[in-house]
Amino acid sequence: MRERVSKAGSVCEKARTERGLGAVARQQRGSSKQGRGASGSSDRREGRRPGGGGIGSSRDSSRGSEKSGRITGVPVEAGQSVELSIVGLTHEGEGVGRVEGYTLFVRGALPGDRVRAEVASIGKSFGRARMTELLSASEDRRAAPCPIYDSCGGCQLQHWDYAAQLRWKRQHVADSLARIGKLPVAPFEASASAADGSAAVGGDATAAASERAPIVVHPVIGMEEPWRYRNKAQVPIGSSIAGGLLIGGFFEQGSHDIVDMDACLIQQEPNEETVRAVKETARSLGYSSYDRETGRGLLRHVVVRHAAATGERMVVLVTNGRDLPHEDELVALIRERVPGVASVCQNVNTARTPVVFGDETRVLWGNDVIYDDIGGIRFAISARSFFQVNPTQTERLYRAAVEYAALTGEETVVDAYCGIGTITLFLAKHARRVYGVEIVPEAIEDARRNAALNGIANAEFAVGAAEDILPRWQAAGVSPDVIVVDPPRKGCDPRLLDTMLQLRPQRIVYVSCNPSTLARDLRVLEDGGYRTIEAQPVDMFPHTVHVECCSLLVRKD
Ligand code: SAH
């Protein structure tokens, strides 16, 4: 089964074309095909990492890379074997080492390792090498518990002690703020501890804003048990090379083949069980699998969700066309084999694209949504709506956002990029009025439904681009005391930042899944009269390189 799609999705759900049970950032650990490594479909959709381009950026390699031969001034050549001490990790999870001052990135190598590696490609300012031997291991190196870790690539840091992962993520946020945002960051010793899972709002925020205290980057709020956290699996379907059996799992590293997979250690177990049951059912009904090369075949993806709070499960079969043979039997078998199933849907996607969902979703049986609770608020989640994938950490992230908003019940609050109204409804309980804006119409339908479901009457929602809607609200006289933003990886649109500066809210709470664009946007807001007081990273995606971060900005005057 050959797949034509780019290998790099993102584990961050804000990039909605991820693949595989682990739903993942495929980074081709150990592969030399780096140009596409960490960008992939989400970047294609959203533009390539604006504000990124720090060490580990794929841009330099695509400009200056030489697969063979020598570059003047570069002390190594492709094919050469070198020994390296690994001194850092890029934001894509590659080890960083140096030979005579020249930087090499080595997949799979960790800070503290000493490795032998073969130079794979060289550019003017850095190159890439493949680890051939681990000469001595960092004391934080662990055996990755997942048996398919090397071929999958969904996780990048399973072979690193969890505490070391969290330390690195904090450092990564701090480094991004300093390097990209040119912002002063407090030394870690001086930072308040958030190891108890709470976000500590440091001191008098307004005083800190006027005297330019350095930004406090708190320790990352990690998980006590950093496994089995994902509430959603998106599994590409294909067929086995030998025998043509319908399989589903993930795209193998460095190739376009689908590998069958029934277990993923970061998935909630009910999702594994559901995927297994759906694959078995599809096989027993003789469904064909979609062939990305020819565009033929029926089943493209199986997407499943599990709502931990209610036990409800959703099954979505993404098919290449409307026609679904044996529909009644399919539904009967899924109901029999999947405990707690509350919704069985078909999504039709006939486009030759790596994007998972098509536009049309049809309920085959049950509800069009499943319900989950976060922090005592109930959410209806439909097949295509964005919903954070790690419920334990989501609650902690939202609590940090609410705490930073410092609401007394009198405020007007705007929540930009609001999805199904999750943060909006968290805030609504503490504010006079909240406004949520989101570009996906179905998500706003869910948001309105969720407000009603929770008896929340002071929330108003609008469909559209935040950069278009905020100026309209401004013209209509909406004057927010607090603006919360939670944009996709590409960060906030410049027009939105501009409108925010004109609206002059007392506080801005910036929730980000990409430290690079966060740092870029904070710089703009700082130049426009705000001070970043503190940042609270939250580990939403243990064992991956991703880190979510909630930051507080306060107006200077
Ligand atoms: N705050 C929500 C959703 C965050 S994900 C939560 O925590 O659940 C980011 C959201 O921004 C997605 O739902 C995406 O559809 C939406 N989005 C992307 N571009 C947008 C834009 N220009 N204006 C408004 N919303 C946008």
Automatic annotation (TrEMBL):
| GO MF assignments | 4 iron, 4 sulfur cluster binding; rRNA (uridine-C5-)-methyltransferase activity
Active site, per annotation: 513 (nucleophile), 513
> Does the keyword section mention Methyltransferase?
yes
Provide the binding site for S-adenosyl-L-methionine.
388, 417, 438, 486
Write the record's keywords in alphabetical order, separated by commas: 4Fe-4S, Iron, Iron-sulfur, Metal-binding, Methyltransferase, S-adenosyl-L-methionine, Transferase
Q: Which domain of life, per UniProt?
A: Bacteria
GO terms for biological process, alphabetical: rRNA base methylation
Record-annotated TRAM domain positions: 75-133
InterPro entries reported in the protein's UniProt record: MeTrfase_TrmA_AS (IPR030390), MeTrfase_TrmA_CS (IPR030391), NA-bd_OB-fold (IPR012340), SAM-dependent_MTases_sf (IPR029063), TRAM_dom (IPR002792), U5_MeTrfase_fam (IPR010280)
Q: Where is this region: Disordered?
A: 1-75
Q: Does the keyword Iron-sulfur apply?
A: yes
Report the Gene3D superfamilies cross-referenced here: 2.40.50.1070, Nucleic acid-binding proteins (2.40.50.140), Vaccinia Virus protein VP39 (3.40.50.150)
The EC designation for this entry is 2.1.1.190
What family is this protein classified in? Belongs to the class I-like SAM-binding methyltransferase superfamily. RNA M5U methyltransferase family.
Q: Which PANTHER family match?
A: RNA M5U METHYLTRANSFERASE, TRNA (URACIL(54)-C(5))-METHYLTRANSFERASE
Task: From the Swiss-Prot or TrEMBL record, give the protein name.
Answer: 23S rRNA (Uracil(1939)-C(5))-methyltransferase RlmD
This protein's gene is called rlmD
